[in-house]
User: What shape does this take?
Amino acid sequence: MNSYQHVPRHLLAIDCIIFGFDGEDLKGLFVKRKIEPQKDNWSLMGGFIAETESVDAAAERVLFELTGLTDVYMEQLHCYGELDRDTHSRVISIAYFALIQIASYKDEVLKEHNASWISLKELPELIFDHSQMVEDAKERLKQKVANHPIGFELLPDKFTLRQLQTLYEAIYEIPLDKRNFTRKIFSLDIIRNTGKKEKTTSRKGSFYFVFEEEKYKQLEKDGLKFI
Assistant: This one.
């Protein structure tokens, strides 16, 4: 006898908050919803969990289907299950946030899913409780980058100190003192000067740096404070 046969069943969904950085602004990837309810309104990317897959596997599948990307930074954020969060049915959503490089996301994928990169400073009204998910993800990101260098996931492999500082200013939504920021970064010894310069923004140019992941892993064991 199935002891669960009289237990109510609910729909279980995945929603992905996908962050990107364009060199100036922190952005989110949003889609115009193709189905009712709330058709044609702005939404996070998401989907339902299949009976044959785990929650993490479903999140990876949804992210791949909607971005074509694998091996990206992704972390479970929270479970959202208010009774009235979806106007169509009782849907419980497990939210994940992911960090990807905007340049790696192809324009044809944007068109296929009716998606757009939108600055978090100009966030449109989102369906259901998706705005709350975005705010929660932003707060988690702020907490996370203070102790872990996951912000490098948003940068190209080679970056300037200005790009790095601008990224952290976009995440924390405050200006950072250039001298103090640079001193802190160099004190950690986890970025390496490539000796090559970016010369599109000034005649003198700025050196490109790369992230030294192995050095970071050694420091991480000591519980360093990143920023």
